[in-house]
Amino acid sequence: MSIMNHDYSFRLTPYTGYVKELCGVKSYDFNIYDDSDSEIGSTDMHVLTSPHLNIISDPIELAKKLKGLLMILNGSLSILIGFERHYSRGFLSIDYSDGIEFSSISDFNSLDITQANPFNFHGINKPHTDANHLSRLVNLSSKYEDLRIVLGLCGMEYSWVNLYRIWETISFYVRKYYIEGKITIPNPSKKLSQAKQIISQAFRIDEREISRFTGTANSFEMLGFLARHGRGQHSVISDPMTRLEASIFVHRAARIFCNIYLL
User: Fold this and answer.
1) Which ranges in the chain belong to alpha helices (H)?
2) Which of 47, 8, 52, 7 lies closest to 31, judged by CA?
3) pTM given for the model
4) Following CA atoms 24, 29, 31, 32 in sequence, which dihedral angle do they give, to the nearest 10 degrees?
5) Could you read off the pLDDT of 51-93 as tens digits, one per residue?
6) Out of 11, 171, 242, 262, which residue is the most buried by the measure of CB atoms under 10 Å away?
């Protein structure tokens, strides 16, 4: 039974030079090309296509997988340029599609559909011969679920709650890799059992900084409705992190985690 191939194309937002720069990325998993009409001087238009999406006929499944691909692209970009810089430039989103009624796919900006794996596992692509870090990260996430989950989380908002989710997920995987012998820590300063101790030594992050981050993120008494937890018995620490400090702190850990796969 043959699979019908479609030819979907999705117009990207924001309409900026930053997105225009992505048109030069070489990847077999996705393509971003310039569809601007220079003759009439219209705003730059940039279009996203992917062979992984072209085999899908159902509009609901297409919407889920398209959002999954956008989350991975946004997550990869945020790793490479920093959470705050990516936020200021604008998350990649879609405002128009060709080949399917756009009314069938809505609310891209919120990315509120649970992330679906956007890749076709019957035909995993090899990295492009001229792949850069962005296309390599996307390609690697098609092969490694751990990386795909972390990139998906990094492709969402950088609130206290989501920053903590990114940190918690990375800590879980690093402890798992350490137990399995996938990462080693030469001459650990002490017997390591807790995820906090392992990620501290594996990533060379001061345990006091970890405590500052988690102590701030968990405390309703300090952050109110922005906190990871509701009101409870969470103490008020003397040197809390700002959200910007927390964003930089978690980005550093996420970048080191992704380098496990890139290097």
Assistant:
1) 17-21, 59-81, 83-89, 133-141, 145-154, 160-180, 195-203, 207-217, 220-223, 243-262
2) 47
3) 0.89
4) -80
5) 999 988 888 888 889 989 999 999 999 999 999 999 999 999 8
6) 171
